[in-house]
């Protein structure tokens, strides 16, 4: 099974960025432990701060991978283009968030990903990614 974890803007700063909200773990640390735990899954990781690169990556994997776990960061709340990209591919996408976006500012309650996603997981810290992976398995 081929699964891509796709992280959007500012998520390269995990571990340093607003630790009270996003925790102290870097994504690389978390990803290493995930790969060990799910050794049977072909797990890939890509992060970009650039909207078009996220779209390109969705196009690249979207007809061959079994699933995409997407944390589009703030683009979740703004990007019609990423929403359209998800609509245009065949691979199912699960929207994830580390924080509970619905317990935060109102602008975070809007998602252009959700209407096109298989499901949404938010608010479980880094475990949100793992729960999404479990659901694909
Ligand atoms: C986030 C929530 C978004 O609102 C925010 O812009 C992020 C991270 C999360 O994982 O909780 O960058 O997607």
How would you describe what is shown here?
The protein is α/β, with parallel strands linked by helices and 137 residues long. It has one domain: Rossmann fold. Helix content is 33%, strand content 19%. The protein is built from 5 helices and 5 strands, in the order E-H-H-E-H-E-H-E-E-H. It has a 5-stranded parallel sheet, sandwiched between helices. Helix 3 runs parallel beside helix 4. The longest helix is centred in the N-terminal third of the chain and has 11 residues. The protein is globular and about 35 Å long. 1,3,4-trihydroxy-5-OXO-cyclohexanecarboxylic acid (DQA) binds next to loops.
- End-to-end separation: 8 Å
How many H/I helices? Answer: 5
CATH superfamily caption: Dehydroquinase, class II
CATH class: Alpha Beta
Alpha-beta classification: alpha/beta
Strand order within the widest sheet?
2-1-3-4-5
User: Which fold does the CATH topology refer to?
Assistant: Rossmann fold
User: How many discrete domains?
Assistant: 1
Which range does the strand content fall in? 15-25%
Order of helices and strands: EHHEHEHEEH
> How large, in whole angstroms, is the Cα Rg?
14 Å
Tally the beta strands.
Answer: 5
The residue fraction in helices comes out at 25-40%
Q: What is the 3D form?
A: globular
Overall pLDDT score:
97
Low-confidence region ranges: none
* Largest sheet features: 5 strands, parallel
């Amino acid at each position: 099974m081929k699964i891509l974890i796709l992280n959007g803007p500012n998520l390269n700063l995990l571990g340093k960025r607003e630790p009270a909200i996003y925790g102290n773990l870097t994504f690389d640390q978390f990803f290493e432990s995930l790969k060990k735990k799910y050794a049977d899954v072909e797990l890939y990781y890509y992060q970009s701060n650039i909207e078009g690169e996220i779209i390109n990556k969705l196009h690249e994997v979207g007809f061959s991978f079994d699933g995409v776990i997407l944390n589009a960061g703030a683009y979740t709340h703004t990007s019609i283009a990423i929403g359209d990209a998800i609509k245009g591919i065949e691979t199912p996408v699960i929207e994830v968030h580390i924080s509970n976006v619905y317990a935060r500012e109102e602008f975070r309650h809007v998602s252009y990903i959700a209407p096109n996603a298989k499901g949404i997981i938010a608010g479980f810290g880094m475990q949100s990614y793992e729960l999404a992976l479990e659901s694909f398995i």
